[in-house]
Amino acid sequence: MDKAGLNLAINLLTINLPTTVYTYMLIYFLVNVMASPFLQYIAEFMYARRYAKRTVEGYVYWIKMYILFHKKQHPAQLKDRDVEYFLTYLSNQRNAAPRTQAAALNALSFLYSKVLQQPLSLNLNFNRSQVTPKLPVVLTRGEITALLKVIEPRYKLLAQLMYGSGLRLMEAVRLRVHDIDYDYFSVMVWQGKGNKNRRTTLAPELVVSLKQQSQYVLQYFQADTANPGYAGVWLPYALARKYPSASKELGWQYLFPSLQLSVDPDSKLLRRHHLDESCVRREIKIAARKAGIRKNVTCHTLRHSFATHLLEAGADIRTVQEQLGHTDVRTTQIYTHVLNRGAAGVKSPLSQLL
After folding, report:
1. Which of 28, 95, 167, 271 has its CA 20 to 30 A from that of 131?
2. CA–CA distance, 77 with 99 (Å, rounded to integer)
3. How far apart are CA 40 and CA 57, in angstroms?
4. Among 86, 75, 66, which Cα is nearest to 127's?
C-alpha cells in the first residue's frame, strides 16, 4: 500500500462519523484502495457465474486472508500443505467454529478447482475445529408478545414475519410484493440460503397489515415512476433482460422499501433498495431491552422461536424442516433440545421427589 493509501486508512479509523457513513467509506476504501487485481478477477469470475453477492464477498474475504497468512505469496505457488497450515491456524489460533473453518475450506477449494484449475487433494490433513456449537436462544410466547408490543411500529411487521413464518432476516427484507400468497396463506422465499426456494406459512392475522404495507409500497412506486431518472427496482440475474418491464411493475417492488432512492453501485442506476438490514438488527436489540428480556436476542432468535414453538405445538420435525428450508433434518433436530420438557424429553427424577 502506498503512503497516500495508508494515510487514508488512518483517517478513516480516527475521524468521528455516523456509523452508516463510516461503513460506506470503509467499504469504498477496501474496494478501491486495498483490493488487488487478482481478488477483483475472482469476484468478476464468480459474478459471471451468478454467485450471490454475499457468497462472493465471503469467498474473497477468505482467499485474501489465506494470501496474507502466507505473506502475500500467490496461491498458484502454494500447495495442499499450505492450505492445511492455514486451516489448522484457524482452528488452533483463531478458535474458529466448525462452520467458519468449513467456509474457509469451501472458498479455497473453489479457488483451486475453478479459478486456478489445480484441485486440492480430497485427503487434506488439518486440525478440524471441535468447538461445540451453541444451542439456539429461544423466547417464550410471553417474551415474543412483550417484544412485539414495544418494537418501533415501522419494524413490527418485519418482526412478525420473522417469527410467524420462520424467515431469516435477509429473506424478510428481500421480499417482493408478489411473494405474499393471500389465497393459500403462504410466503414465497426465492433464492434463500443455499439458493433454495421454498413456501412457508403465513399467519392469517397478518393479511390486513401486509395489504396496508402493499399500499404503502404503491405510494412510493407511483412517486418513483414519475421520476424520469428512476431505473426500476433491481432484478436478479437475467430477469431484467428477459422481462424488460418487470423492474417497473408493482409486484416486483420490495415489500419493505428504503425511505430514499439510491444509486446502484454496480449499474450506477437510480433505484429504491430494500430496508437496511442493520436497522432491523438494531431495533430488535432495542425492543428486547425495552421489554426487559435478558436473553441475547437477535433477529435469528425469532426464527429459532418459530421452530421451537411449532415443535411444542406437535408439528412433525419434517414439516418444520421444510418450513425452515433446512437441507438436513439434523440441523432441525437442534430445536428438540430446547423444548421446555427438558433435554431430549427426559423427565428429571427430582420432579418425582418434589
Report:
1. 167
2. 27
3. 11
4. 86
User: Residue 304 catalytic?
Assistant: no
Parts of the chain belonging to CATH 1.10.150.130: 35-115
Local confidence band at 20 (pLDDT 50, 70, 90 cut-offs): very low
216: which residues sit within 8 A by CB, 6+ positions away? none
This prediction has a pTM of 0.75
Q: Catalytic: which of 70, 198, 273, 300?
A: 300
Which sign does the torsion angle of CA 242, 246, 247, 252 carry? negative
DSSP-assigned beta bridge partners for residue 271: 262
Of these residues, 66, 155, 168, 254, which one is catalytic? 168
- 331/321 Cα distance (integer angstroms): 8
**Residue for grid cell 505469496:** 73
Question: Which residue among the candidates 193, 199, 273, 290 is catalytic per the annotation?
Answer: 193
> Which of the following CATH numbers is that of domain 141-335: 1.10.443.10, 2.40.110.10, 1.10.10.10, 2.40.128.90?
1.10.443.10
* Residue that the C-alpha cell 455516523 belongs to: 18
Q: What is the third-level CATH fold of 35-115?
A: DNA polymerase; domain 1 (1.10.150)
Q: State the average pLDDT over residues 227-256.
A: 89
3-state helix, strand, coil in the chain (%, to 5): 60, 5, 35
- Per the structure block, which three cell numbers stand in for 163? 417469527
Residue 28 has pLDDT above 50, yes or no: no
Cα separations (Å) of 172 from 82, 180, 207, 234?
40, 11, 16, 16
